[in-house]
Amino acid sequence: MKHDSKFTNQKFKLVGTRVTRPDGVDKVTGRALYGADTFAPGQLVGVILRSPHAHAKIRSINTKRAEKLKGVKAVITSADLPDLTNGDSELYDTLENCMARGKALYDGHAVAAVAASDAETARKALKLIKVDYKILPHVTDVDEAMKPDAPIVQPRVKTKDKPGKPTNLSLVSTYGHGDVDAGFEQADVVIEKSYQTEQVHQGYIEPHACLASMGPDGKGELWVTTQGQFAYRNTCASLLGMEISQLKVTSSEIGGGFGGKTHVWAEPVALALSRKANRPVKLVMSREEVFRASGPASSTSIDIKLGATRDGRIVAAHAALRYSGGAFPGIWAEIGAMAAWACYDIKNVQSVGYDVIVNRPKVAAYRAPSAPMAGFAVESTLTLMADELGINPVDFRLKNAAREGTRASYGPTYGPIGIAATLEAVKKHPHMRARLGKNQGRGMACGFWFNFGGQTCADLAIGVDGTVALSVGTIDVGGARASLSLIAAEELGIPYEQVRCNIADTASLGHNDMTDGSRGTFSTGMSTIFAARDAIKQLRERAAKVWGINAKNVTWKDGKAIASSKGERKSLTLKELAESSANTGGPISGHNQVVADGAGVSFASHICDVEVDPETGGTKVVRYTVVQDAGKAVHPDYVEGQFQGGAAQGIGWALNEEYVYGDDGRVQNAGFLDYRIPVCSDLPFIDTQILEIPNPNHPYGIRGVGETSIVPPLAAVANAVSNAVGVRMTHLPMSPPRILAAINSSREEQALAS
Amino acid sequence: MPDVELFAGLRDAVAGAKSVQVEGTTIRELLQNIAREYPSLHKRIEQGIAVAIDGNIYRDDWDQQISEGAEVVLLSRIAGG
Amino acid sequence: MKGIAVSTTVNGDAVEYVCHGRETLLDVLRNHLGLIGAKEGCGTGDCGACSVTLDGELVCSCLVLGAEVEGRTVETVEGLADGDKLHPLQKRFLDGAALQCGICTPGFLIAAKALLDHNNNPSESEIRYALAGNLCRCTGYDKIVRAVSAAAGDMRRQQKAQVKRRATK
Fold first, then answer.
1. Domain A428-439+601-754 is in which class?
2. CA distances (Å), A9 to each of A118, A491, A539, B67, in order?
3. Nearest Cβ partner for A259 among B55, B64, B81
4. N or C: lower Cβ tally within 10 Å for chain B?
5. Does domain A137-415 have CATH number 3.30.365.10?
């Protein structure tokens, strides 16, 4: 039965209230179980040997001495993970990334693995594995990799749809409409600027961890921290040659993902070790391994050309975006090209994305993948243009903001959207009028993200005492159980405390796509609504049976079945119907499976104040405001939390975070000491304003919220720093040495000029 | 016959044309008709696309209706994080 | 196996174990004593997810050896609540939505308690600097700081009430 997913503008009793989350007590008492928190009888410790070279041919691997070490139960190489990918090139890339196949492609690339009875023995065994490497020339810089004489990272890769030699340029994507050349002719002012952003990591505090257990009958179980237990199951089963029903994956609580746990890293290796050793294998990545060998975001090099007329109208815009994908083809630059100009109504616009392969780890999504970097370049240039034209930067954006009926730069025409609303809110916000102190500067920026839906199902089982078990297939990344329980309780008309939300394993529920694309509350919320309505239909039928009337004369209101036909009938509560369910047809439960789609785009505008120390370049964010459209905030605390978390990550990306590569192509700062994420004393309170412009494609009007908040901060902070120091910053992160260099070169220029 | 706009990656499959003319009252029908009338385009589509109808992006729900006069744009199948 | 026998006190309980010379206190808590509240986020003392107190002092348990705590007292997140009565910090973290994924929460609770045990009325700045050794990637720290401040207020009021009760006895 297909349900109607259109927004109905109902009044809510529970949705929108700030309840305590159901998994909260476990998480504040240390009871909650994350990826590394389970133990199996007879478990072995799994460890991985990783390439110390950025690019090297593997001539041979000798594991004999390691295998003989007392306590070692299995040693594997790529020979133990045969290629079963059957022409699926994306799956082959995953296989090759899990374990090198004849060539190490980046510093940290897995080349072998060991399972042993304890960690000490396992580490000793790694040292006994002899790998004969032939070091090859490497390339880690995205612009260097595009040069004709650059070392080729993946000889099997050619530019998609273009015949030719092997190349590091795996894809060129063009988006836009109109005639940019003609547009630039019409412009009174044209600004051209180039920008770079360094590679960053999602920085989740919980490293990848799993417990894999393969039996001699070929069936397996995997306990793992993941954003998608079903996706991990499907990928691991494919790589190991299992039918997916033979592998049961249970998601642990997740200690942060942000897109980095939407892809398998060491899990197929753990399963292969377990298969060979015939024992459970617990494999936990160290922090250093997480940095070197999971999936950071792209480093980028972007050229922007912007043309406007004196009255503040943008007449032409062009972006050339070069993104690194790590050592495998990706569509990161394509996504950046699609998102770059999405906030604006531009008649002549073009973005060209260049996806480039380098000797770095395989890139994975980071919140709104690729949009922050493109946003940084575009929004910095917009403020530059506003300054040049003498127009207030918010007004300049309002004048050019996309609205209903605007042709988006990535193709379709927008329906009702919220960018103008966020800009108007920013304009009115007291933050914009606050006085700035010495060495302080202010910047603002907009951001856009697509948001997605996906395959989702939910089971809503009513216990014999009338309390509800809601089983869902998306992960609780940051409070989702609370929101979903609110939704179920709202639909059924029962107290929030009578609903318990469980995250199902892959054997207990139908397929669910990953928890990414800001889809958790949007999609599973939708499925929960429909599962509840399915249950209500059955409850009405049961009441009808008890009363001996037609079910169409039974309505459901406030947790009770009410007879609407003639005759005195006391209403029946959910509890009463549950208690008598054995005699009316058995257990009552609602089910729904849906492809939640049409999630709807979202916009945000941020304001940032910074203070820069002119002697050290040290920079602190002193005030920050997020304005974003959430459609409907089911649990406002957690919507605020998403806004604040995304902003903090963006601030780190803008000011401090970067992978530092040596001339040898090795990561120099694979730890939290030198990969500096924001700490508590770096940040102020982060103010949030939730706008609620209902999403017409969701019964409650819910929009995805998780990702958009990471898009504006890079430019908001850059615009603030540029405002504070009087120099346009074009290279992220704006670490103290870079800011100092900019201040000093500006002083030199001024000295020369005078 | 309605215009189905193509994003850049698909245009190569139809000699650079920016759109093709195809009927369809649902996304499924539309894609089936494309498979028949533009086999080279179909091949590219099989690798993964999304369909935007009047600005809303659909990645999986091929039951989605396409009303008369709706704007249809084929896009790259991208994902979030 | 050449192990080292250790006798110590964890969350008020007398505890004995045998550990390797190289095992950290974090390893011992998690692998020998079933106390998985302390987490390994980095193994190098940079993230604070493994925070515990040792004789009342805040430490990273990944930087302490299992053999070093002989005869000393260790407090972990599992010892914060009094039976089913949550500590004010735990209550405020829950009420104030000061956790999203929750992986850093045990470390923050221990670090915040260590702060409040020394300074029962910290300013926003004092809270931020005291917690600067605990990394959180989800929250941006906003609701954490508010929760600690609110808990400090709760604890001051509790103390006042206790003093009053003793005085009137």
1. alpha beta
2. 58, 14, 25, 24
3. B81
4. N
5. yes
